[in-house]
Amino acid sequence: MHKHCLVLEGGAARYPAVDFLRGFSIFTVVLMHLLQSFVPSLPTLLYQAAALGGTGAHVFLFCSGFGLFYSYLRAPVSLGSFFSRRFGRVYCAYLPVVLVSALVPSLYAGADRLGALLSHVLLYKMFVPRYAESFGMQFWFVSTILQLYLLFIPLCLLRRRMGGMRRLVWLALGLSVGWWVFLAVTGLYVERIWNSFCLQFLWEFVLGMAVAEHLHGGGRICLRRGTLALTAVLGLGLQAGISLWGGYPLRLFNDLPSLFGYGALVLLLYHVAGNAIRRLFGALSRMAYAWYLTHFLVFTLVFTCCPDGIAAELGFGFAAFALSLLAAWGYSALLSVWMPKQKEKRI
């Protein structure tokens, strides 16, 4: 470990720094959902500060692109194998949580509950505004990640035709910026199905793929503490300024400073943290998807009988957070038995 520089050496089997990014990002996203959705007595300043946790979704998408492509480069797989294994695992883990959530009356207020449930099962909720956040606000992310999974193999083939990742990164950034402009001009940014469509985040997913290619090819990344600190201050400062005073549609362009500012902060924390903290967030990384799927359901059930008042809400919040971790651990263990990792058919 270099004292003043975080170094990622190419060719490693695994990158603990990426695991830390993924684990920390899911931690802050879950914490944000808890504070903003279930603690109404939270002071305004803390409520606004909690919104920073949602930035973890950008890092999660970056890590998804990195992990998928690094694995692909080490062991290329066929299109059919990718969909039956990777896509299938995401969908099959998602479906049981939706089925249970559909039994909770407060998680959907519409009269067409069966239609809402079918929109999840048949994956058309990502195109119907009233179903976009049915049975849990966190499910928007599942739609987005499934869209990106559908694009992954075509992106790999396109990268090959374009002669490398550099052009693909610029293409993805151009498509995302074009999408932001389109939403700003049309006013469609107010709808979740539009502002969370895969093109909104394509650039950061492909950026993760580019970093994976660099490291897989033996490249070395050296990030100085001072650079990370400056990037974190500038990125998060710009993000906060746009969020507080910019408003929509300017917020559509906030993803760039959000990813770099938040990502730099987390990498800085990783660099200065002790081994115990690193292991903790590494463990959270391994059950990140299970935690993301189940936490809102657990929070809803725990807060069903919560009395008013900040003290009671915080007490229930602590209990709900702990129970959500327990549920995620149990569900993650169940998934590992139900869907054990299998070797994929290579190409």
Describe, in plain words, how this protein is organized in 3D:
It is a single chain. The protein is an all-alpha fold and 347 residues long. It folds into two domains: 1-50 and 273-339, no CATH class; 57-219, no CATH class. The protein has 14 helices and two strands. The protein has a two-stranded antiparallel ribbon with strand order 1-2. The longest helix is centred in the C-terminal third of the chain and has 29 residues, at 310-338. The protein is globular.
Mean pLDDT: 90
Report the helical percentage: over 70%
How much of the sequence is in beta strands? under 5%
Globally, the shape reads globular
- Cα-based radius of gyration, to the nearest Å: 20 Å
**Number of H- or I-type helical stretches:** 14
Q: What structural category do the secondary elements indicate?
A: mainly alpha
> What's the total number of strands?
2
Summary keywords:
347 residues; mainly alpha; two-stranded antiparallel sheet; 14 helices; disordered C terminus
